[in-house]
Every structure is written in C-alpha cells, then in structure tokens.
Design brief:
By secondary structure, the chain is an alpha/beta fold. The protein is built from six helices and eleven strands. A nine-stranded mixed sheet has the order 8-4-5-3-2-9-10-1-11, with helices on both faces.
C-alpha cells in the first residue's frame, strides 16, 4: 500500500492521484481543510452522503452535523460543496444523498438503540428558530435550494425508497421510508450516460429512461455503527456520471462504499474522511481494489 503525507496547507498535487496500480487514495483529515487544497477541474463525478444534522455522533473532533444551529450546518455544507464545484470538471455531476429530520422538541440527548448503535447522541440540537416541537425540518430541501442559489444546476430530486426502512414507534404520522438523492451539475450541459442506466419497461420487452424513484434496501455494514451507502444507490450515479478510468470523489468517505463501487466499475476514487477508524475499515473493505492510504499529518 502506498502512503503519502501531504504537508499542511500545501496544495495536494495530481501526482498523488489514484492510478491503475493504486485505484483508491484516501485523504485523512477535515474535508474543509483538504478540499480547498485539491486542484481545479480535476474530478469527473462526486458522490457523497454528508453527516445529517443532529442524527449521528461520530465521536470525532471536527465532525460536521453536531452544530448547535441549523444555519451553521447548512452554510458549512454549502461552503464545502462550493469547493466541490471548483474541483469538478465543467462537464461533471454531483450526487448528494441526504435525509430529512424532525425537530427534537427540546430533548437534549438520545439513548443508544440496540439495533442502531450510532443513533446514541450525547447532544441534540435545539429546535431551529421559527419551528415547533415535532416539525419536519426539511433539511434536505433547505440544503438543495441553498446549493442551487450558490450556483449549482439542480437537475433531479431522486427519491431513494427503502423497503426495509427502520420501523418507528410514532402514532401520529407515517413511517419515513425515503431519503433524497439530488443530482447537480456544474454547467448547463454535462456528461450524462442515460443509456448506461436504462431500466426495463413494465412489459419487460424494452428499456426506458430510468425513473426518479429508486427502490433499494439499506445494507448493513457490521463494522460501522452507522448507515453506509447501499452499493445499488451509488452504482447508477457513477455509471451515468463517468466513464472507465475517470476519477470519482467522495468528500465524506466513511467506510468506503464509493471506493468499492468505483473499483468495481473500473473508475478511480479519492475519498476524504476525518475518522481514522473508518479509514481502516474502508481499507479492509476495499482491499480487493488495493487502496492507497494517505495518513494524517
Ligand atoms: C453518512 S457518513 C458517510 C458514509 C459513507 N457514504 C459510506 O458508505 O461509508 C458521513 C461521514 O462523514 C465523516 N465526517 C464527519 N465530519 C467530517 C469532516 N469534518 N471531514 C471529513 N469527514 C467527516 C464521518 O466520520 C462519516 O464517516
């Protein structure tokens, strides 16, 4: 495994990019610091799922998602995604997975759940100004519209329907069984291989343009105590947004699902992740595609 240490505050040159021999490079650190050091127009496609607001405690200093104020969380992500736009090629696409959340109604913490250990929270963000206890905050759309106003072309809101979603004990609303996947482009015209992701017609005799509701089960990852991307959610994004040997970026790499799918589809991948423990898990999961790890300073 190749291991390269980028010095503090210096640009990270293309020399350190993934190659056929080392198809994955993981950059360890805070995305806010790392991404601004990556060169302009260098990635074909970005696929990511940032931490949701007040949903998970990753237990690492500098984690995003633990901001006391919703606007600070949104602005932090919009700033990072502006950098994503800079490093994306003009013909590139950005696929953003995010779910909605409810206001906490003043609860300060959440107990550990046996089935879902990452849901234990030592804090809960307060109800945002103007909202009430029990309100659906609509974080996903707030973020998507802020990104649009910041310069992104917002091209699709894809509903990721989860047939095996977590049951909820609520009695006065429906169980939430979906999240969003937003498709953004940097330019008005961009690379999009519609043919690569066509789906069967209802009678099974032909193919049609893929629809905007995708039914995909969540996939457990026993090593990680949080929800990882199902590979089935990432695959269409990479197939439609890139060609073999293109470089894909995930600025919130987690345990490396985007790297695995990139490798399976003969793409190269750069991941940025803050938590060393997750990088080690990602490294194990992507061993088949021989990832290169760039450690922290
Ligand atoms: C929703 S998870 C991503 C999961 C990933 N899609 C997968 O399949 O494994 C979000 C990730 O963002 C990481 N993270 C949180 N704050 C970060 C920061 N400031 N810089 C880089 N990574 C961060 C967390 O450690 C976590 O691994």
């Amino acid at each position: 495994m190749n291991s390269i240490s980028p010095s503090n505050n210096t640009p990270i040159p293309a020399l350190e990019w993934p190659t056929d021999q080392e198809p994955i490079v993981i950059l360890h650190g805070d995305t806010r610091d790392i991404i601004r050091r990556l060169p302009d127009n260098s990635f074909q496609c970005v696929v990511t799922s940032p931490p949701y607001w007040g949903v998970r405690d990753y237990g690492v200093e500098g984690q995003i998602g633990a901001e006391a104020e919703l606007d600070v969380y949104l602005d932090t992500l919009v700033d990072i995604f502006r950098e994503v736009r800079r490093v994306l090629k003009p013909e590139g696409t950005f696929w953003l997975n995010i779910g909605n959340t409810y206001s906490s109604g003043g609860r300060k913490w959440r107990q550990e759940d046996d089935k879902n250990k990452g849901r234990a929270m030592s804090y809960r963000p307060p109800t945002p100004p103007g909202l009430k206890k029990k309100d659906l905050i609509g974080v996903a759309w707030l973020l998507a519209l802020k990104c649009q106003r910041d310069g992104w072309y917002l091209r699709n809101d894809i509903i990721w329907y989860k047939p095996n979603c977590q049951p909820e004990s609520v009695k006065d609303r429906f169980t939430v069984a979906h999240e969003y996947l937003f498709l953004f482009s940097k330019s008005e015209h961009y690379y999009f291989d519609q043919e690569a992701i066509k789906e069967r017609t209802t009678n099974g005799n032909g193919l049609k343009n893929k629809r905007s509701v995708w039914s995909i089960n969540t996939e457990p990852c026993p090593d990680a105590h949080f929800a990882v991307f199902p590979k089935g959610l990432v695959r269409p994004c990479i197939l439609a947004g890139s060609r073999p040997n293109d470089v894909i970026l995930d600025p919130f790499y987690g345990v490396g699902t985007v790297g695995i799918v990139s490798g399976e589809l003969s793409r190269l991948c750069v991941g940025i992740e803050l938590k060393q423990e997750y990088i080690e898990i990602a490294d194990k999961r992507t061993a088949a595609v021989q990832p290169a790890l760039i450690p922290a300073e």
